[in-house]
UniProtKB/TrEMBL annotation:
One of its GO terms (molecular function) is DNA-binding transcription factor activity. SMART domains: HTH_LACI. Keywords: DNA-binding, Transcription, Transcription regulation. It comes from the Bacteria. This is LacI family transcriptional regulator. The lineage of its organism: Bacteria, Bacillati, Actinomycetota, Actinomycetes, Kitasatosporales. Pfam families: LacI, Peripla_BP_3. It comes from Streptomyces cinereoruber.
Length: 348
């Protein structure tokens, strides 16, 4: 059955005129009312200008790039590269210049679905979802259903750094090999003689966190080394700073700390220095991602390099229809160990 504007109004407990004002953006509406209307639109999968069947193909030159946090260099580097590639896509086989719009979700799955619904209404030519996703099955199912409807309407769907849902055939997926990178990083520390290794993990409900932690644990298990203390937190410097105190309280004899990303690793290094501990003389520290700050840290960070700029460029070309996807739609992007001065051999 076709969802009507009246259905949305009833769901949001407002008048049809109010729904029209929110969707058209031509009249001031209270923010709480606007959010209620947009939630109803998402819940009912309402598409402006008639039933979804009328949108046999996307006709807009709009490309939506969804990121968790544009201020995070991990997302900023990829989004910038994608936007540049999309803007240059006029010379590609798809033809016609595209407008890339970056949508900052703040890590909220509700906001992500809202943006996807807005892009659906605008008949977006493509959407790119960057970074890991929440592990909750209901969230994964809701996002997969929305992406399927977008693809059915002719919108190209590109996942950049996000693993596809099992059985998901409608998206081109660029998947970072987090597990291999994390395993090689821990193997590097084990090779230096470290046996008491703490770990500052990202949020427990994120795919990126799980995959990196799995690689770390695989290396420990293969070497027969017990897992050290692990603390979860946001991918932020403050998280690394706070987690260091907890890790050392749980095991004062730690000789190495692995951080979930380079920004977190900087917080770890600062906390160790405040306690009079030398990096890497007393405690080795390693990060992940190889952000620009990793090279400029003192000492420079040992980390795992992800080709963020290249991945963003590839995602942009796929979104602009200026490149062919892999035969099965899925591409694995390698992660490479980069050894610098923040890791060293255990002191005898």
């Amino acid at each position: 059955m076709t969802v009507t504007l009246a259905d949305v109004a009833a769901r949001a407990r407002v008048s049809p005129a109010t729904v029209s004002r929110v969707l058209n953006g031509n009249y001031p509406v209270a923010e709480s009312t606007r959010e209620r209307v947009l939630r109803a639109v998402a819940d009912l999968d309402y598409v402006l200008n008639g039933p979804a069947s009328s949108l046999a193909a996307a006709t807009s030159d709009l490309v939506g790039v969804l990121v968790n946090d544009i201020a995070d260099p991990f997302f900023g580097i990829m989004a910038s590269a994608a936007q540049t590639a999309i803007g240059a896509g006029a010379s590609g086989r798809g033809g016609g210049e595209k407008l890339a719009v970056v949508c900052n979700t703040g890590g909220s799955p509700e906001r992500e679905l809202t943006y996807l619904t807005l892009l659906q209404r605008q008949r977006a030519a493509a959407v790119i979802l960057m970074g890991g996703s929440l592990e909750a099955p209901e969230r994964l199912a809701a996002t997969a259903a929305k992406l399927s409807r977008l693809a059915d309407a002719g919108t190209r769907v590109v996942l950049c750094g996000r693993p596809p849902v099992e059985g998901d055939a409608h998206a081109a997926a660029l998947v970072f090999d987090h597990r291999t990178g994390a395993r090689r990083l821990t193997e590097h520390l084990l090779g230096l003689g470290h046996r008491r290794i703490g770990y500052v993990a990202g949020p427990a409900d994120r795919t990126t966190t799980r995959h990196r932690l799995e690689g770390h644990r695989e290396a420990l298990a293969a070497a027969g080394v017990p897992e050290g203390p692990t603390v979860h937190g946001p991918y932020e410097r403050a998280s690394g700073h706070a987690a260091t105190a907890e890790l050392l309280a749980r095991d004062p004899d730690l000789t190495a700390i692995v951080a979930s990303n380079d920004t977190v690793a900087l917080g770890v290094c600062a906390a160790l220095r405040e306690r009079g501990l030398d990096v890497p003389g007393d405690v080795s520290v390693a990060g992940f991602d190889d952000l620009p700050c990793a090279l400029d840290a003192v000492p420079p960070l040992t980390t795992v390099h992800l080709p963020l700029h290249e991945a963003g460029t590839r995602a942009g070309h796929l979104a602009a229809d200026a490149a062919e996807p892999a035969p099965d739609g899925h591409e694995t992007i390698p992660a490479e160990l980069v050894v610098r001065g923040s890791t060293g051999a255990v002191r005898g």
